[in-house]
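Sequence only, no structure available. Ideas?
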Amino acid sequence: MTNWSVILNIAKTHLLTKIKQTSIAALGVTFGIGSYITLVCFMTGLNTMLDDLILNQTPHVHIYNEIEPSKKQPVSLYDDFKESFSVVHSIKPKLSQQKIHNALPIINYLENDENVSGALPQVKTQIFYMAGSIELGGNLTGINPIDEAKLFNMSDYIVEGSAEALHNTDNGILLGIGIAEKMSLKVGDRVQVSPINGGVFPLRIVGFYQSGIADLDAIQSFTNIKTVQRILGKANNYITDINVKMYDLEKAVPLSKKIEQQFKLKAIDIKTANAQFETGTTIRNLITYAVSVTLLIVAGFGIYNILNMLIYEKMNDIAILKATGFSGKDVQLIFMSQAMIIGFVGGVLGLLLGFGLSNLISTIPFETEALPTVKTYPVNINPMFFVIGFSFAMFSTFLAGYLPSKKAKKIDPVRIIRGQ
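Reply:
I predicted one. Tokens follow.
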């Protein structure tokens, strides 16, 4: 029967008599795991920030009524021309409206879908911004500000003012930061807008919007849906776009196809709209985890080498233990215990080091126009990374202790003593 108290006591004595080597072995584990935690938290944080830059502003399914040429042209209606080769110039789009027919029942239908987190209506139109003698062309989008902030994180891109201020102001406008700079406008000023069909409407600036895409910020502004409907002279059921947020991103593709077939509307899912970005995200994640795994493997070899040398330096101790009656299994357990103690202590210190460095990085100032509300470097402190790091520390030290101790188990003490 194994006497664990004796084995652990001998293991502790070995570790404390060679405290310098023990410390180096533990620090090897500490820095290996600490580096892994720091790297993976920082890199996944950056990847998440880049993903959010696109995904926060992009609906999972965008529904609209696309104006397109008629599939059947007048010439195809005549039987006399069926066998002929016809060339028709200047094909005009069919007469249709931009608004979505029965938009409100469609929104209600989508919100009752268990896979849909929310479906938000929008009214988009082209306008001219006018301030003094300056006139700029751009786009005005009517939204429900509170819902947009809740589902699509719109508040992250409002650099002055708030979604609540826009919601509470009937004639308010959330102006693109590029437009405000060109027209020298500030919050509280008034800007006049003129739709394509004529008329001038004064709106009060309640905040500035900055998406991080300069070309978009120079033309895009937001206001309440009712305000845009009033500017266009349309009824309350006039909706041009519906943005859908899903619980599961993977279900956006089948839903978009279902909507196109069922309602004869154009529905673009997020993967189709951002195919190139999706590829970039996959490659960045692949690089992150490849580097992280490589770092763990390198750390594992370092731990193995240190513990291997530690055991071979104690050959005399092995000979004495065996000569005094300890079995090969007992000797193996002694050195395995040493390795696991080093792995545990080094692993815990590594987690603390990684956590400390990650928090330190998260306090370093980082400002970018792409995400105006981000003030420090993004760090993703995921508990799973710590579980993986500690598990690897214990597993690698187990192997690093098991392989040399297996050899120590078979050592003949007489040969060692004779060699001395």
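The chain has two domains: 4-55+278-419, 61-67+96-272.
Hope that gets you unstuck.
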